[in-house]
Design a protein that fits this description.
The complex is a heterodimer of chains A (341) and B (344). Chain A is of the alpha/beta class and 341 residues long. Chain A is built from eleven helices and twelve strands. In chain A, helix 5 crosses helix 6. The two termini of chain A are 42 Å apart. Chain B contains 15 helices and four strands. In chain B, helix 5 packs antiparallel against helix 6. Classes of the chains: A alpha/beta (341), B mainly alpha (344). At the A-B interface, strand 7, helix 7 and helix 8 of A face helix 3, helix 11 and helix 13 of B.
Chain lengths: 341, 344
């Protein structure tokens, strides 16, 4: 503990020095020589959730690749979806005195003690993907995708597309009818995507042109997405113009239900989903889906950049949101080879 | 009057009554609930949807009924469904050009065979090692999804081979979904075995008193063993339908909590979880009732957060209707009323 304190003091000293060096800034070329640590000197300890989905696998690969590209030494730990494993990993990172600790919290709570230990040891912590309830002073920054934004992007794309294509409501009248497949009840991401979508809709100048005719959870699965869509179609099959699905899988299930009902997905019903995994690209290439809003697992690059900045004492914002793309069907074919998940 | 009493005292009366109530409710609450149209030569309507999805549950509940009749339970069915889908989709392969690595027939057979092996494992633990059925099948319940993930390497395999989708949807030219035929075939098989052989009676004897059954010369171990294998195979067939329905193997979610629905349909059908007498017809009605309930709630547009509450309320109501104690209380009340009337 005492040793850690001393180390922390030294590190803090080094940080102020490097900060001073940056502040001086007169010798632009000499930055990497003395006070500044370059990426190759940095050791990053990263505690991953564990392999739970294709998305997570892509996330892991991306972080490993980004570390290699940046020349950062990565100590990687796989927690196999257990919080205690992650805490153990973080403790071992502290013990081996890495420069930066980063992890994807499996759950939101129970991190205070271990984060305090890291802080006492003077090791900065970066959260990736999911957040924690602990005091924000215990970590430096949180890199994540903004689920509210994803929902909003989905609506805005739909709004633009409907006007661009001069679509008219299939069931007559002057309102487009929207069906929504919600995510699992109780998941914060699911709630945010839906909220983002609805907020964007009510704030839109064309709000009066849209009406949510049906909204139900499809539990993020293909099977339920299909079953719920079947039900939507029985009630309002001749009216639904737009389907917004909170993830790709439900949309893929719904497409099958729509086809079975003798309606053309992607034409009669405009379909937009969030995730943009390979499956949705295949559907878009077949013309059965219109747009996928990205929920990116590619957080590695920005994580490495942030780690370098923090070690060199630069200021970073408390939350960093990643840029996420929108992929309409017409660019699906050329984008597919670039997809990692 | 006599006839009426005979009908009401039949074990099928209450399950059918509960289902009828649900349907009558729908007739008023959901416009177009019973309407069936013809679309591309296929029947299209909510009733067909219900039968289509209930078919999976019916097949599952056939296996569950027999296992429960022996006094056991098989909570690994849901995971075995995932294994079945994983094996089948893995063998067919996810080639995007719509070709299959292996003939559909072989893949399906292999999937059901693997599930039969799962049943052998359960049967071995329960009948040979005498581990409590709940605990014994819990092992495969937890491990099963892991096995399915290993097979698919943690990915969802999407199958683009068209004929694979025929199992869970319709064969072109057939007015009804294939699932209904499969469920009918399984039910027919079960009924035939029950009628033509003494298996049904043996199972009942084991469920009522295994020790007594053994002393009369029945091979109790073998009977229990076979019932778990049958349950595994039923889950295998259900898994084929489930994964074919979405044309993909989804090890995380395929058949999730479905064993609970199967147990519920057996219970709704009047079979006691303590074993003994069992009612095939009751389980079928139970399965259809559960699916009707789900479809009804979707049709009514009940919000996602409240869905489980409504489901639970209806299930409690149906269970209450069927409980002997509750029946007696009601009977006593009406008896008292009659007495009161007489005294006046």
């Amino acid at each position: 503990m005492k040793k850690n304190r001393i180390l922390a003091a030294i590190l803090a000293g080094a940080m102020t020095l490097s900060l001073a060096a940056c502040g001086g800034g007169s010798s632009a070329e000499g930055e990497s020589t003395d006070g500044e640590k370059s990426a190759s000197d940095i050791v990053l300890g990263f505690a991953q959730v564990g392999a739970e989905s294709e998305w997570r696998t892509a996330n892991t690969d991306n972080i490993k690749q980004a570390a290699e590209d940046a020349g950062i030494t990565l100590q990687f730990s796989d927690a196999q979806q257990k919080q205690e494993n992650q805490i153990k990993a973080i403790r071992s990172f502290i013990a081996s005195d890495v420069d930066v600790i980063s992890f994807c919290p499996i759950v939101e709570t129970g991190w205070d003690t271990v984060l305090q230990e890291a802080k006492d040891a003077g090791i900065p912590v970066i959260l990736v993907d999911r957040g924690v309830t602990a005091d924000p002073s215990l970590y430096v920054t949180h890199i994540s995708a903004d689920a509210l934004q994803e929902g909003a992007k989905a609506f805005n794309w739909i709004d633009e597309y409907m006007h661009e294509q001069n679509k008219t409501p299939r069931g007559g009248g002057d309102q487009f009818q929207i069906a929504i497949l919600e995510g699992t009840v109780g998941s914060s991401v699911a709630a945010d995507r839906l909220e983002g979508f609805k907020n964007a809709m009510s704030e839109s100048q064309n709000a009066a042109q849209y009406n949510i005719i049906a909204s139900q959870t499809g539990e993020y699965t293909r099977a339920k997405g299909k079953e719920v869509m079947e039900s939507f179609l029985k009630s309002d099959g001749d009216k639904i113009d737009i389907l917004f699905s909170c993830n790709d899988d439900m949309a893929l299930g719904a497409i099958q239900a729509i086809e079975a009902a003798g309606i053309k997905p992607g034409e009669d019903i405009v379909i937009v989903s969030i995730d943009a995994a390979k499956g949705s690209f295949n559907a878009m290439i077949e013309g059965k889906m219109n747009c996928a809003v990205e929920h990116t697992p590619n957080l590695g690059e920005i994580l490495m950049e942030t780690a370098v900045k923090i070690v060199n004492g630069e200021d970073v914002p408390a939350t960093i949101e990643v840029e996420e793309g929108i992929f309409p069907a017409d660019i699906a074919e050329q984008e597919l080879p670039n997809r990692t998940y | 009057m006599e006839k009426w009493k005979k009908i009401t005292s039949s074990h099928l009366f209450l399950p059918v009554f509960a289902l009828a109530l649900l349907l009558i409710f729908n007739a008023f609450a959901t416009p177009g609930f019973f309407s069936i149209e013809v679309q591309n030569g296929q029947l299209f309507g909510r009733i067909i949807d219900i039968l289509n999805r209930a078919s999976i549950l019916i097949v599952l509940s056939m296996g569950m009924t027999f296992v429960i009749a022996t006094g056991g339970i098989d909570i690994s069915q849901g995971s075995v469904i995932a294994i079945s889908g994983a094996v089948c989709c893995y063998l067919i392969g996810g080639a995007t050009d719509g070709t299959a690595q292996m003939p559909l027939f072989v893949a399906c057979l292999a999937a059901v065979a693997v599930c039969a092996v799962c049943g052998v494992w359960n049967g071995f633990l329960v009948s040979k090692l005498k581990i409590q059925p709940m605990v014994a099948t819990l092992i495969l319940m937890t491990a099963g999804r892991g096995i399915a993930m290993l097979i698919t390497e943690g990915q969802n395999i999407t199958v683009y081979y068209k004929p694979f989708t025929y199992i869970g949807n319709s064969i072109p030219g057939s007015p009804l979904p294939t699932t209904i035929y499969i469920a009918a075939a399984v039910v027919l098989l079960v009924v035939l075995i029950q009628k033509k052989t003494s298996v049904g009676m043996f199972v009942q004897a084991v469920g009522i008193n295994a020790e007594a059954a053994r002393r009369t010369g029945l091979n109790v171990t073998a009977i229990i063993f076979i019932m778990y294998i049958f349950s595994g195979m039923c889950a295998g067939v259900a898994g084929l339908m489930e994964s074919s329905m979405i044309a993909a193997a989804d090890p995380n979610n395929a058949g999730l909590n479905m064993e609970m629905d199967a147990i519920l349909s057996v219970a709704l059908g009047g079979t006691l979880l303590t074993g003994g007498r069992f009612y095939i017809g009751g389980s079928i009605i139970g399965a259809i009732t559960i699916q009707t309930l789900t479809t009804t709630l979707y049709a009514l547009g009940v919000s996602s957060e409240q869905l489980p509450v409504y489901k639970a309320a209806v299930v409690i109501l149906i269970c209450l209707l069927q409980s002997e104690k509750f029946k007696k209380i009601i009977e006593r009340k009406s008896l008292n009323q009659k007495k009161a009337v007489k005294q006046v």
